[in-house]
Amino acid sequence: MTATLTETLPATERLTPRQRFIAALNRQPLTGLVPHFELVFFLTMEAFGKVHPSHRSYHQWLQMEPRERALHRQDIADLFIATAERFGHSAIFLHPNPGTEEETMALVDLIRAKTGDRYFLMQHGDATFSVPDGAHMVEFSCRLADEPQKIKAEAQAMVDQQLAAAERLRAHGGLDGFALCADYCFNTGPFLSPRQFSEFVTPYLDKLIRGQRQMGYYVIKHTDGNIMPIIDQLVQCRPHALHSLDPQGGVDIAEVKRLYGSQVCLIGNVHCGALDTGTDEDVIASARYALRHGMPGGGYIFSTSNCIYTGMRLARYELMLKVWREEGNYRSSSTSARSLGRPV
User: Fold this and answer.
1) Per residue in 264-303, pLDDT tens?
2) Residue 344 and residue 127: Cα distance in Å, rounded?
3) What pLDDT, in 10s, does the model give residues 58-68?
């Protein structure tokens, strides 16, 4: 492991992007530009002329010879690094293709060999029940009522399997943390009632996060939608950060900061719908609002309310980043945003 929860950091002016990301996760004061990353940047064709790793065919992988697979790994590593460098990301969320432990370890090794400890590296690491897809929603709902103990046994088994995988990754080294990407909510609220959530998700999320933290990992909990009816349970499970604080689900970063900013780092919440279909003024206003209310007191990482997804205009993301670079700066040792409200 390259990260520990008690890591001693140098003066903030000399921090690497990875160290700045860790400082924000630990809610430590920073100077300079607030850290930024995106869970996924899918616009690699437009930005670099390369298909995103997640969109590449597994059947191609099966047909590759070892030499071709090595080139494939190199290309994926180079693409993630190029994305982080061009767009100022402090962290890289790894999407190996195929998504096996072996390929994760190989990708970690390649990026570390190319960049050292410059970037925070994370991998998907959730093992809790998310909102079922439409084909299984009714069946899952019936099972909650008809066979709750079987559901709980499955939840426990999923967590145990993930923690065993996390331990193998820890022994290999190089990975800093996990992004837990089970979605729990619609825009109108959580799929499970708060009482059901406390029975079928929270105990297992708590065990998962506790186990990952004990191994020395940093843990970011992601879920879209309106999390406010269950946010107290999410915070009680002690992730280092919450992502993505979805404004399309009515989540107000100012309110979340007021209620929980002293307990958990916040990541978000620039409105993805505005980036996609709104006006330039909408994008600027949303980016500015996120910075204005996320930055004070530290413990904030700038990002969208989901990811930079396929079909979004690259120019809109670049506009969002312009606001970030011009207005997302901490003054000296202060933790207040500088020049917020200045026209872009």
Assistant:
1) 999 999 999 999 999 999 999 999 999 999 999 999 999 9
2) 42
3) 999 999 999 99
State the DSSP string of 208-220.
HHHHHHHTT-EEE
Cis before 269 (ω within 30): yes
Residues 219, 248, 251, 339, CA torsion sign: positive
For residues 155 and 204, the answer to whether their CB atoms sit within 8 Å is yes
With beta carbons less than 8 A apart as the criterion, state whether 74 and 129 touch. no
Please state, in angstroms and rounded to a whole number, the distance separating the CA atoms of residues 119 and 80: 10
Let me know: does 282 contact 274? Beta carbons within 8 Å.
yes
| Length of the chain (residues) | 344
Query: How many Å apart are CA 166 and CA 215, to the nearest integer?
Result: 8
DSSP letter assigned to residue 54: G
Token digits for 253?
């970063």
Distance CA 211, CA 223 (A): 20
Distance from C-alpha of 247 to C-alpha of 236, rounded to nearest angstrom: 22
CA pair distance 329, 32, nearest whole angstrom: 5
Task: Tell me the CA distances in angstroms from 207 to 30, 191, 211, 247, one per residue in order.
Answer: 31, 21, 6, 29
| One-letter amino acid of 316 | R
Rounded distance between C-alpha atoms, residue 38 and residue 322, angstroms: 15
CA separation (Å) from 5 to 1, 121, 153, 275? 11, 15, 31, 35
Cβ–Cβ under 8 Å, residues 183 and 225: yes
Domain covering 12-330, topology: TIM Barrel (3.20.20)
The position carrying tokens 């409200």 is 341
Domain spans of the chain? 12-330
Question: Residue 299 has which token pair?
Answer: 């413990």
Q: Is the pTM of this model over 0.85?
A: yes
